[in-house]
Design goal:
The complex is a heterodimer. By secondary structure, chain A is an alpha/beta fold. Chain A is built from 13 helices and twelve strands. Chain A folds into two domains: 287 residues, TIM Barrel, CATH 3.20.20; 67 residues, no CATH class. Chain A has an eight-stranded parallel sheet with strand order 5-6-7-8-9-10-11-12, with helices on one face. The radius of gyration of chain A is 22 Å and the shape is globular. Chain B is elongated and about 70 Å long. The relative contact order of chain B is 0.10. Chain B is α+β, with helices and mostly antiparallel strands. The chains are: A alpha/beta, B alpha+beta. At the A-B interface, strand 1, helix 1 and helix 9 of A face strand 1, strand 4 and helix 1 of B.
Chain lengths: 401, 280
């Protein structure tokens, strides 16, 4: 008899909990970081002569406006045309987007544009069962055919969430061959989960030259990620941000929209992020995002919007420790709140599980108490969170990343 | 030694009937007995990097089952997109213009190792490795039989049938769920491409539930295109869209029809006439 495994109601589900943090102010961990090369250029033949901020993608030397374009959801080549004409130069696609049709659209539009005028990146995701080096290269060849290009500027190994995957010798060899043969100018890895670990491994490999990572204001307090970005920057890797809108909504019901312009500005106010690839699907969005390429300073309204967004759902424990010692059962509340944040805030369930496992608790440590007396200054429902996160120890570790 | 089976006799439900999907028992193939189920919140765990696109097409759930037969593997992914239009939409947008389609379920296409088809609210993607090694196994026969378990007599969404057949480019009929032509106020639309006099013309049909909604859309488009049209009533409009070029619009009842990519409006008028002639 087959077993239905509900992957969503499993505790190892990560992203469904990626909501917004609560307590911290907008002071960013990035502010003290050294500023890499950044300059403003006059756009050639730009009628309005507005300055566009350019940054260099690490040691690749590729210089691009800080606003690039994620092509994934664009169904209309006219948006590509408008994006190119407005000044965007870096376009990101993937072999898996629309089963290759997205690459075809990119190829169809850019075939008439001088190749050295655009930076094209694509991504290849080996199938779940894996593939050989040769099969990986075949996939790249298919992508190049669809793109109608002899090479891509950046070839990413798509969606790396663990070290074993990004260091799989079959794929690293394929990436090396792609570069040696000139089919890819630079090679990189994209990551949406376990980002800090993946980035650190990518830097240590001395193989990868560009990182494409999820990065948005919900990750503001993720110190591990900030450190990893710094390490990547110090090592000369190019760093491209994605998922800058954090899903675009503040609630599961999708009624409360993120201020997307503010969210993009927040990402680009970190100088470690060289460019971001928001998914542009309409012309209004394109125009709004492009304004950020000229000025990524958050104004007061935008700061306020982001602050409200962060307050919307309190996932982020600021570690004030005021809950410490409050629990009549002597539960280590700060550790549990931190685990909750790892799982639901940062999408690191494996780390959450490790933290919970060390505490040696039952799977429902609050069941003896009729109510909870612990008061959190951020207003967290402590009992609910503990009940939720303690279950993670029951999930087989191999399901977690 | 591998056996030869007739696939019509090889589909045995395992008793798993979840959301209308029954995965068969395939004689000679081994299954690990698991059906993976994904929903909107964790689809990315299965198709990381592409899940957002599926979500935009009303994705509700995915069930995945797999089998092995010596060196061959077979994986069946059943995507439930809630209704036939969205299922057709995601299928149509992933289908290559060069695909040779055949009636598998509603419609499908294949190559040596991949077969995709749509039927009802389901978009099904079948992947196999070295299926030719299994004597007697036919990916297409398997798919045809499996499609029957997902529903019978599937039909194309009615709006698809409104497009004229003459000069229609193969596989060009696509459903766009939001922001058609990059314009948020247009919302969803179905489009198709035509080869006419050396030009590629795109026709589109936007259907809404009431007249006021269409009127609002027309007014917004007129404003967006900065056209000097004072009174708006059902009929034709020629707008200069700053991004999409000249657009010919025809408002009829709850429908907004349109064409882009033409150099001569006279060429598209008969096409729009054909469509509007079929509307109530």
């Amino acid at each position: 008899m087959n077993k239905l495994i509900d992957m969503a109601n499993s505790t190892f589900n990560r992203r469904n909990f990626l909501f917004l943090g609560a307590t911290a102010t907008l002071g960013m961990a990035t502010q003290a970081m050294p500023v890499p090369k950044e300059k403003k250029k006059k756009k050639s033949k730009e009628k309005k002569k507005k300055d566009i901020v350019y940054r260099t993608l690490g040691n690749t030397g590729i210089e691009v406006p800080i606003v690039s374009m994620g092509v994934m959801r664009a169904d209309n080549p006219n948006i590509l045309k408008a994006a190119y004409e407005i000044g965007i130069r870096h376009f990101d696609t993937a072999s898996g987007y629309q089963d290759g049709r997205n690459e075809e659209m990119v190829g169809q539009y850019f075939k008439d544009i001088p190749r050295d005028q655009v930076i094209i990146s694509t991504k290849i995701h080996p199938p779940k069962e894996g593939c050989s080096t040769e099969q990986f290269i075949e996939k790249l060849d298919q992508s190049l055919k669809r793109l109608q290009m002899g090479y891509v500027d950046i070839l990413y190994l798509h969606a790396g969430s663990d070290v074993a995957y990004i260091m799989d010798p079959r794929y690293t060899e394929a990436l090396k061959r792609a570069k040696a043969s000139g089919k890819a100018r630079f090679i990189g890895v994209s990551t949406h989960a376990n980002m800090a670990k993946v980035i650190n491994a990518a830097v240590d490999s001395k193989l990868y030259e560009v990182i494409l990572t999820s990065y948005n204001f919900t990750l503001k307090d993720d110190a591990d990620l900030q450190k990893a970005l710094q390490k990547a920057s110090d090592a000369g890797l190019g760093i491209v941000g994605m998922k800058s809108m954090a899903g675009g909504f503040l609630d599961k019901e999708k009624k409360k929209r993120v201020n997307c312009k503010a969210a993009l500005k927040w990402v680009l106010s970190n100088p470690l992020i060289h460019t971001a690839i928001p998914g542009l699907t309409n012309f209004e969005m394109l125009k709004e995002n492009w304004k950020v390429a000229q000025n990524h300073d958050l104004d007061e309204t935008e700061k306020c919007d982001l602050q409200l967004a962060m307050n919307e759902v309190g996932l982020y424990c600021r570690g004030c420790m005021s809950c410490s010692g409050q629990c009549p059962q002597n539960l280590p509340i700060p550790d549990l709140m931190r685990s909750y944040m790892y799982n639901y805030g940062y999408g690191y369930p494996a780390k959450a599980q490790t933290t919970v496992a060390k505490l040696n608790l039952s799977h429902n440590p609050c069941e003896e108490c009729p109510g909870c007396t612990v008061a959190c200054p951020s207003g967290f429902d402590v009992r609910e969170r503990i009940t939720d996160i303690a279950r993670i120890k029951m999930v087989p570790a191999n399901f977690l990343v | 030694m591998r056996k030869i089976f007739l696939f019509g006799l090889m589909l045995f439900p395992l008793g798993i009937w979840a959301q209308g999907v029954v995965f068969p028992t395939l004689e000679g193939w081994k299954s690990d007995g698991k059906v993976l189920v994904f929903n909107k919140d964790n689809l990315y765990e299965h198709i990381d990097g592409a899940s957002e696109f599926y979500l935009s097409y009303g994705f509700e759930s995915l069930q995945v089952a797999s089998w092995k037969n010596e060196g061959s593997e077979l994986t069946v992914e059943v995507y439930d997109h809630g209704d036939p239009l969205h299922a057709y939409g995601i299928y149509s947008i992933e289908k290559s213009a060069k695909a040779e389609t055949s009636p598998i379920g509603l419609e499908g296409y294949s190559d040596a190792t991949i077969l995709n088809f749509v039927t009802g609210k389901f978009y099904v993607k079948i992947n196999s490795t070295q299926p030719e090694k299994v004597v007697g196994f036919s990916l297409k026969s398997f798919a045809i039989d499996f499609a029957k378990t997902l529903g019978t007599n599937p039909e194309y969404p009615k709006v698809i049938g409104l497009f004229p057949k003459d000069n229609l480019q193969p596989n060009s009929c696509q459903y766009i769920p939001t922001e058609f032509m990059g314009l948020g106020f247009l919302g969803s639309a179905v489009r198709a491409k035509y080869s006419l006099g050396g030009a590629e013309i795109t026709l589109f049909i936007i259907e809404r539930t009431d007249l006021a909604e269409v009127e609002k859309m027309v007014l917004k488009y007129i404003s967006y295109a900065e056209a000097k049209i004072k009174k708006v009533a059902e009929g034709d409009f020629l707008l200069k869209d700053p991004f999409n070029g000249t657009v010919c619009l025809r408002w009829k009842g709850n429908y907004l029809l349109g064409a882009t990519g033409f150099s001569d409006q006279k060429r598209v008028a008969p096409l729009l006439d054909q469509i509007s002639g079929m509307l109530k």
